[in-house]
């Protein structure tokens, strides 16, 4: 996994977390759900890349 991919996934996760927290604060369930989904996708990508990295070593 390249450093660019790691940064991109971390940024996506952070963006999702911000959306989720904003949805919480404004009682906007759609925004909250969208943030949770984005964060989950980014976290899964990170986990998959870490698994690939583990098998490279």
From TrEMBL:
InterPro entries, alphabetized: CsbD, YjbJ_sf
Basic and acidic residues bias spans: 1-24, 36-57
Region (Disordered): 1-57
Domain annotation CsbD-like: ranges: 5-57
Annotated signal peptide: none
Pfam families referenced in this protein's UniProt entry, alphabetically: CsbD (PF05532)
Family statement drawn from the similarity comment of this UniProt entry: Belongs to the UPF0337 (CsbD) family.
Protein name: CsbD-like protein
Naturally occurring in which organism (per UniProt): Kribbella orskensis
């Amino acid at each position: 996994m390249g450093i660019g991919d790691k940064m991109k996934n971390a940024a996506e996760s952070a963006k999702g977390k911000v959306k989720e927290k904003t949805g919480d604060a404004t009682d906007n369930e759609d925004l909250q759900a969208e943030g949770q989904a984005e964060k989950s996708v980014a976290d899964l990508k990170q986990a998959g890349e870490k698994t690939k990295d583990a098998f490279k070593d």
